[in-house]
Amino acid sequence: MATTFAVPDGRVAMNAVLRNGFGASGGSITSLNFQPDLVWEKSRNGAFNHQFIDSVRGVSKSLHSNLTSAEDTYPTYFLSFNTNGYTLGAGDYTTGDTLVDWCWKAGGTAVSNTAGTITSSVSANTTAGFSVVTYTGTGPTATVGHGLGVVPSFIIIKSRNNADNWYAYHSAIGNTGSLNPNLTSATFTNSAYWNNTSPTASVFTIGTIPSQSTWTYVAYCWAPVAGYSAFGSYTGNGSADGPFIYTGFRPRWFMVKRTDSTSNWLVYDTSRIGYNQANNYLLPDLANAEGSGDNYLDILSNGLKIRVANQSTNTSGGTYIYAAYAENPLKYANAR
Fold first, then answer.
1. Which tens digit of pLDDT belongs to each residue from 120-142?
2. Are 11 and 128 in contact, with CB atoms under 8 Å apart?
3. What is the pLDDT, as a whole number, of residue 42?
4. S-S: 249 plus which of 54, 87, 241, 326, CB 3.0-4.6 Å?
5. Does residue 175 register a pLDDT over 80?
6. 144 contacts: CB under 8 Å, gap ≥ 6
7. Which residues pair with 78 in a beta bridge?
8. 123, 107 in Cβ contact below 8 A?
9. Sign of CA dihedral 207, 210, 215, 216
10. What φ, ψ does residue 307 adopt, rounded to 5°?
11. Quick check: 276 pLDDT over 90?
12. Which strands, in side-by-side order, build the sheet including 120-125?
């Protein structure tokens, strides 16, 4: 049967892998339906840093969303991206560590992109709306090609060679503000982030902050794809009968952040608990082990339902942004 969905099965472009550390022997993950270009890894039972490894910077290079530090080089940790997963070396976690690896497929080998005033290297998956971009800052306001062919709704940027915050653009906030994924802060308003200019189908605009002269950067860019990914906002009602967030699919992965006040970033996925109410979360801004407790929500066939009143997900009148990825489009999905 024909489908209008560009990504009829979300597992061909994004997935969450649960695993134990391989220890000194190393090992391979072979359960994916694609070759990933970004693996965001986090220990669930230990207070270890988040790890961002991508195919454009190279498998030995890691950034940490909970830190401001420049990228680290780990030659024996992450060894290769493979057609159905990836290989870890002797520097992997111990066998007693439990982990979740969130994986996205971009476009494989990066190509030069001259759409912006800065030439970038881009690995782009235009079908699934995801690209990995590297560039070198020039100092003043500049534009950078992202390769998606459509307007991205969510962009996070990190300096590779210098200590600095992470910076996040989200379409629900707009081009005058930024969030820092390594901080709990509310939205900052400053034209030095995005020069008060929204992304286009070919480039995103950066001010002087994410374009320091001679600094090297990586940007992860996501665009919405009907039935597969969604980026938006909601207003909290402070009730256990919280807001319903329509996505058009059963989410595999969901990230939320309050924007008008301080709060942690929270990430949920359907691999780690598997039933409602979902309450196992990880915090991109902290090295903490996996948490549970009062951050409850229901993951439904067509979106999410917040089931608690709290600062992180549902304060009355609070504003929140989110990013969500599907297991399957609504046409095929079932509530759990």
1. 999 999 999 999 999 999 998 99
2. no
3. 98
4. 326
5. yes
6. 116, 117, 118, 120, 133, 135, 203, 204, 205, 206, 219
7. 88
8. yes
9. negative
10. -120, 25
11. no
12. 111-113, 120-125, 130-136, 216-222, 154-159, 167-170
Residue for token pair 């990880």: 282
| pLDDT tens track for 209-223 | 999 999 999 999 999
Tell me the two tokens of residue 214: 């001679």
Residue 282 DSSP code: B
Token duo for residue 278: 């979902």
| C-beta of residue 80 within 8 angstroms of C-beta of residue 87 | yes
Name the nearest CA neighbour of 325 among 197, 193, 226: 226
Q: What pLDDT sits at residue 335?
A: 43
Name 194's Cβ contacts closer than 8 Å, sequence gap at least 6: 169, 175, 176, 178, 204, 205, 206, 207
Core vs surface per residue 75-114: b (16+ CB within 10 A) or e? eebbbebeeebbbbbeebbeeebbbbbbbbbbbeebeebe
Contact indicator for 254, 320 with CB cutoff of 8 Å: no
